[in-house]
Amino acid sequence: MRKLLAITGNEAIAYAMKQINPDVVAAYPITPATEIVQIFSQYAADGEVNTEFVAVESEHSAMSATIGASAAGSRAMTATSSQGLALMWEMLYIASALRLPIVMPEVNRSLSAPINIHADHSDTMGARDSGWIQIYCENAQEAYDSLIQAVRIAEECLLPIMVTIDGFIISHAMEGVETFEDKDVQNFIGKYKPAHPLLDINHPITIGAIDFNDYYFEHKRSQIEAMNKVEPVILKIAQEFNKTFGRSYGLFEEYMMQDAETAIVVIGSTAGTAKVAVNNLRKQGKKVGLLRLRVFRPFPAEKLSKALSNLKAVAVLDRSTGLNAYAGPVCTEVASSLYTNSEKKPKILNYIYGLGGRDIFVEDIENVYKDLEKVVKTGRTENLINYIGVRE
Amino acid sequence: MKNMVEIRWHGRGGQGAKTAALLFADSAMSSGKFIQAFPEYGPERMGAPVQSFDRLSDEPITLHCGITSPDIVVILDPTLMATVDTTAGVKDDGVIIINTALSPAQIRKEMGIKGKKIFTIDASGISKSTLGREIPNTPMLGALIKVSKLLDIEKVLDDTKKKLEKKFRTKPELIEGNLKAIKRAYEEVKGE
Q1: β-pair partners for A349
Q2: Are residues A189 and A261 located together in one domain of the fold?
Q3: Does the beta carbon of B36 lie under 8 angstroms from any beta carbon of chain A?
């Protein structure tokens, strides 16, 4: 029987991990992801999972141990946030290039300095080109559902995957989450059959060998190709998930986009707040829409451009900054993909918001739609990059 | 959003403001409501002013921002009212529930509160007599249920009993005491 539980985002993730029952979890606690590791280690200590739980001394070691476990042929997971992810940096690239299907929940938090424990996307945006699949969730339910799908996606694509939630806003907020029975989750993810396990001594292989100018490029090229094949796999598994469990997910979610003239593109929990803004403005007869980007890596350029091409103006909201990049990371990708994929090009505005957990309210988002309306009326954009809720 | 109620809890670190917000939301979910409950995270420590929040609705809640204009404010510690703006943003027809032995009229005069509906309940006194120590959060739940009219008290008592039975398997006196505290506060809360 399905159970509706009042649990936080972290609890939902830990519960999904329990039902996934990985062979190995090597992790190090960090705010605001600590509870995931803490709750899961309790499951391990109580014998509720068969997992070998490895308490390591740093996130670099957490990812290293997870890589070792995955290469050996086990279903391996870890979880982290912010500085923890930053410390994993060199190992992230090794996990993806070794084609290890590691699943990692990541709780989005700002990066130091200044020290801050609250939500923004700087941490995973910094890892966006590390060859990991990235799924950003809006709420605890989606985190639970996505983590279950992530196991299948990673293992079919032979690529690591991170599933993220916004720190505190989702990780520490209690919501109703519908959970499935253990056996149904197990049936969905299936038994893990590693492709090339190191421990298969009858088929000895070398992993992580040196690879100079003779073959390095070819191996990188094949890694790119592996990433190119991810999109249909995500959609196929989402469809199967929907058939089994009755909730539908895609590369992105379109909200009131059908006849929209202007729209916001946003990632994570802010999309939920933005939906209320869209509802309010729709009641006033404004043709506004919302596109919540869920899969950021691989970037769904073609489908996203198609979804945005008929708009007159679009605002891309970034919860991280490119500092001196052309724009925020989400905006840069959206603008580039529209430039090359679409004949029609809506006007684009970029909004940097919510750094270090600065709250964003319905009214802030309604103001963005007002700006878009002005751009449509005048045909002009004043600044590409704008800021929400910062004291200048 | 239709029929959405937003609640802000004020307490001091250690008084159970977070637990109360979670308990209330949990009970509301058992009664078929869509819920959210979240604390405010700052440099919290024992005794420092803290806040926590609830959202309840008959429809799914997609809002993920903080609550700035609550319908109901619950104040676990009346001494907070002197230093924290506990009525900030409360709607004109909003409700304030305060843990105090004073009457609503006395508190209104003392704190100079204009407008809004004030309710008072001696939650500290009740918890001392039912639990033997001062834990005002569960009696305040009882007062909130009465004042908000959002949930059915019998259902909440039933639900809370089940939860406490799991939590306090070895301390049955705490189960009885907490249930009594909720019930008494439900009956004794006074409005103007």
Answers
A1: A315
A2: no
A3: yes
Question: Residues A115-152: pLDDT tens digits?
Answer: 999 999 999 999 999 999 999 999 999 999 999 999 99
Residues A209-265 pLDDT 10s: 999 999 999 999 999 999 999 999 999 999 999 999 999 999 999 999 999 999 999
Taking an 8 Å cut-off on Cβ atoms, the answer to whether B1 and A276 are in contact is yes
Full residue range of the structural domain in which residue A119 is found: 3-244
* Number of A–B residue contacts, CB under 8 Å: 61
Count: domains in chain B: 1
**Pair (A220, A105) in one structural domain:** yes
Q: Which of A55, A64, A59, A52 is nearest to A21 (CA)?
A: A52
Of A35, A71, A39, A37, the closest CA to residue A56 belongs to: A37
Domain enclosing residue B142, as ranges: 5-191
Choose the weakest-confidence range: A154-163, A301-310, B36-45, B89-98: B36-45
Query: Residue A269 and residue B41: Cβ atoms within 8 Å?
Result: no
CB spacing of A272 vs B63 below 8 angstroms: yes
Give tens-digit pLDDT for B122-176.
999 999 999 998 889 999 999 999 999 999 999 999 988 888 888 788 888 889 9
User: Do A70 and A216 fall into the same domain?
Assistant: yes
Contact state of A276 with B26 under an 8 Å Cβ cutoff: no
Both A226 and A315 in one domain: the answer is no
B170–A contact, CB cutoff 8 A: no
Q: Whole-angstrom Cα distance, residue A183 to residue A48?
A: 14
In this structure, are A176 and A87 located in the same domain? yes
Segment A56-61 long-range contacts (CB within 8 Å, at least 24 positions apart)? A56/A26, A56/A27, A56/A28, A57/A28, A58/A28, A58/A87, A59/A28, A59/A30, A59/A83, A59/A84, A59/A85, A59/A87, A59/A88, A60/A87, A60/A88, A60/A90, A60/A91, A61/A26, A61/A28
Strand ranges inside chain A, DSSP E: 3-8, 24-27, 52-55, 76-77, 80-81, 103-108, 133-136, 161-166, 174-179, 252-255, 262-267, 288-293, 295-297, 313-318, 347-352, 385-387
Cβ neighbours, 10 Å, residue B115 = 12
